[in-house]
Specification:
59% helix, mainly alpha, single chain, 434 Repressor (Amino-terminal Domain)
Length: 85
């Protein structure tokens, strides 16, 4: 089985969820331990994917699951995975 996890874009709900929570990009970035919002901006703009640690931190901060943060990408992975079974 080979799923191309490096594909772009990475559709997500990060910006909507952040805005609904009332957080600024800089607040979230600093909460995650970053000095600026460059990485968060790239994640929200579907250009990059957070590493596992940052994904878990986002889930905790927003009280969401990876499936809720990346619903389309999650479903794509599920479809690709189950097509190999």
């Amino acid at each position: 089985m080979h799923v191309n996890y490096k594909r772009r874009p990475y559709p997500n709900m990060l910006k909507v969820i952040r805005q609904n929570a009332g957080y600024s990009q800089l607040h979230v970035a600093k909460t995650l331990g970053h000095s600026n919002a460059v990485s968060l901006c790239a994640w929200e703009n579907e250009q990059k994917m957070p590493n596992g640690t940052n994904l878990i931190k986002l889930c905790i901060l927003y009280n969401k699951t990876p499936r809720e943060l990346y619903p389309q990408y999650y479903e794509l992975i599920v479809e690709e995975y189950f097509s190999f079974l």
